[in-house]
Amino acid sequence: MQMKSEIAGEAAKQRHIQRGIDAKDKSKGDGKLQGAMQAGAREYPEPPFPEQHQPKPGHEWAIEPAPLYDAPYYLGSKKLNQKVALITGGDSGIGRSVAVLFAREGADVAIVYLAEDKDAEETKSAVEKEGRRCLLVKADVRERSHCHKAVMETVEKFGRIDVLVNNAAFQIHSSDFGELTEEHFDTTLKTNLYGYFHMAQEAVPHMKPGSAIINTGSVTGIDGSKQLVDYSMTKGG
């Protein structure tokens, strides 16, 4: 019960930070960042897309049009056959795509997520459609005890961990550096740096030589961003 309360509290905290940023954006403009285009062999939906704004942590199921994640023309070659991957933030976005394509390569997958149950169940279903097993673990990576729980549940379910993908992250822009609050700054660092640190330390004792730890980065860690000072700092880290 305490862990559920901590998770609910963190989701509420993220929404509180976002509301503060939203209020500042309304007085200055929309505060939107220019996003990268998608490209590839498949057909993509044509913009413009309907305007939409979600409270943190956000729900992929509510996005219109639905994000593309399954790479239908990609054929797996069993590079990860009989391996086990533990993916944080695996319920949606990059994490979901990694989970599905790792499963296509033959891996069983454990997904750590904060509060997005419906998205997590959708990812689990997609992994199972690839013929692999999927474990869902609800946890807050900022907390070491939650990371320990996630690792132990994965080991108990699958007997091993071969790949750790540190992917869970917190990002909210702040158009004015002077308005970046300590709460906002602290949440970004605790999620994006402490989360990676905690997960790695908990997982390493269960990983054999030849295993891998993958940390999701960002171009902001190289180029920086005046609207994402805290986030770019963590990605550089």
Account of the 3D structure:
- By secondary structure, the chain is α/β, with parallel strands linked by helices.
- The protein has one domain: NAD(P)-binding Rossmann-like Domain (Rossmann fold, 3-Layer(aba) Sandwich), CATH 3.40.50.
- It has helices at residues 2-28, 93-104, 117-129, 144-158, 182-203, 220-223, 229-236; strands at residues 84-88, 108-113, 134-138, 163-166, 212-215.
- It has a five-stranded parallel beta sheet, sandwiched between helices.
- Helix 2 (93-104) packs parallel to helix 3 and helix 4 packs parallel to helix 5.
- Residues 31-39 have low confidence and may be disordered.
What layout of secondary structure does this protein have?
Layout: H1 2-28, E1 84-88, H2 93-104, E2 108-113, H3 117-129, E3 134-138, H4 144-158, E4 163-166, H5 182-203, E5 212-215, H6 220-223, H7 229-236
Parallel strand pairs: 1-2, 1-4, 2-3, 4-5
Helix pairs in contact: 2-3, 4-5, 5-7
Q: In whole angstroms, how far apart are the ends?
A: 33 Å
Averaged pLDDT: 88
Percent helix among the residues? 40-55%
Provide the succession of SSEs. Answer: HEHEHEHEHEHH
Radius of gyration: 18 Å
Tell me the name of the CATH class: Alpha Beta
The tally of structural domains comes to 1
Q: Strand arrangement, largest sheet?
A: 3-2-1-4-5
Largest sheet: 5 strands, parallel
Uncertain runs are 31-39
CATH architecture: 3-Layer(aba) Sandwich
CATH fold descriptor: Rossmann fold
Structural class: alpha/beta
Net shape:
globular
Proportion of beta-strand residues: 5-15%
CATH homologous superfamily classification: NAD(P)-binding Rossmann-like Domain
Number of strands: 5
Continuous helix count = 7
